[in-house]
Amino acid sequence: MRRLLLALVGLLALAACSMAPITIDVLPMLGDDASGSRQIASAGPVEMLLPGPDGRQVSGYEVPPIRPATVALDYALDLQRDGQMEGDVTVTFYLAASESDLWKAESQLGEPLAVSLAETAQTLSGTLELNGAQIDALMSGNMVIGAKLTGTATGQATISYEFTKLLLKVTFI
């Protein structure tokens, strides 16, 4: 009996090790919130929460019940400025469990990305690793995601954004 149990545990461990990575395309789950624009008139601090003040609830995806070894977010975000504005902002991505405060430091994905508002169009892209709490949020089947632009600016402009890629790459051992 003991040998059978050990063999079964070994087979389960082997099966977990051999699971192929999966990709979850979050972009379609954003719907109309994948793009938008905001009018900014400023001579000082600027803050934009994308797609809105609560981020965007994401659910309806499937993840195997086995905890992933790593999860990374591949992203691309297009930013455009229409109008006269100068200044520097940072863009920071966030992911949290749906019942959590999205904009807290623990929900931050990677480091903030520098953006110059002197540019009329920019694309930010890269890969950000999820931490343990963020992997837990993914495994729960219901999470919230968003991005925050913060900095200082002078002028008046419309800032448009469009998420063009949001892929969660899930790997198991």
Automatic annotation (TrEMBL):
Keyword hit for Signal: yes
The entry's keywords: Signal
Highest taxon listed in the record's lineage: Bacteria
Signal peptide range: 1-20
Protein name: Lipoprotein
Organism the protein comes from: Oceanithermus profundus
